[in-house]
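lol ok so funny story. i was supposed to be doing the assay writeup but got distracted and ended up predicting the structure for this chain instead. priorities right. anyway since i did it might as well share w the group, maybe its usefull for someone
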Amino acid sequence: MDVRNLQDVPAFITKDGSQIRELLAHRNSCIKNQSLAEATLPEGASTTPHRHWVTEEIYFILEGEGEMLIDQEYRKVIPGDAIAIPPGRVHQISNSGRGSLRFLCCCAPAYEHDDTALNEV
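and the output, tada:
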């Protein structure tokens, strides 16, 4: 049985500039086809606009307030919001609130730096 506690998982910076803690993926568990990570953006921060050619993502907002961009569409996001990000779509999330913006990132297949292409908005 693979069980990971968030406090025991080391953080790293992804290619888009967000800090994540990868809870479950092929790198640390029996999971082979997806990944689950917690991401944190400090107040005023944004990820670099980017896309994934193969991976689809779901963001689930845990705390804080943000603004989500997918292609040319912006939307305010708050705790409880789930955001679908299809492969190939340019996306960016920005922390527009006070304090940290925390969210879960579910990726299928699992997140890989090599599948992340940085873009200009």
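The chain has one domain: 24-118. The radius of gyration is 14 Å.
back to the writeup now i swear
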